[in-house]
Amino acid sequence: MFKKDITSGAKSKVKSSVQRTIRQKVLDTYPLLEPYIEDIMPKKEQLDLVKLPDRVSLYTLQSTPLFFQHMDDAILPHLAIVHRYPNCFPRLRIDRGAIRFVLSGATLMAPGLTSPGGRLPGDPEDTEGKYGKEELEAGTPVVIEAEGKEMACMVGVLKVGTAEMKKTKKGQACEAGHYLGDGLWTLSL
């Protein structure tokens, strides 16, 4: 979505009623953020809306990017938020071979998640329970981590459920919404 460098468009202040709606939508999508929501989106602070190309809305607090949304799609966190609160989002892990493709903006394919280095929910090798036990449905926003790396490298939306991924082990798994080094990551506000 943000393969090329992008320039921010018009910046406007978000009305308090709309701000409450956005805040609730974030909590509905990411319930584990509830203890931190006051740190992320304080009620007394002014939220700004920055228009980006291709009908993308970026919500910011001063010059800190928080969440973005393409038209009426799911609201996705900026990687800066994911790096600050990594345990609050559903996550998957790709193997080492898929890293360069993900960081070049390619659609994430199922073999990168189902190979020995990848992790999906319910994986017996996930002894910490970091990737969850419940299967994720298609359309679920997820954070993608890379094997051997500490920080997340991508945020996207699943194209197929994780149960189907485990069964077929091929095809497109996740659309790249935002990844390290893309236009949204390098955008200066």
From TrEMBL:
GO cellular component terms attached to this protein's record: cytosol
InterPro entries per record: MCT-1/Tma20 (IPR016437), Pre-PUA (IPR041366), PUA (IPR002478), PUA-like_sf (IPR015947), Uncharacterised_CHP00451 (IPR004521)
Annotated localization: Cytoplasm
PROSITE patterns associated with the record: PUA (PS50890)
Keyword flag Metal-binding: no
Keywords: Cytoplasm
Protein name per its UniProtKB record: Translation machinery-associated protein 20
Organism: Paraphaeosphaeria sporulosa
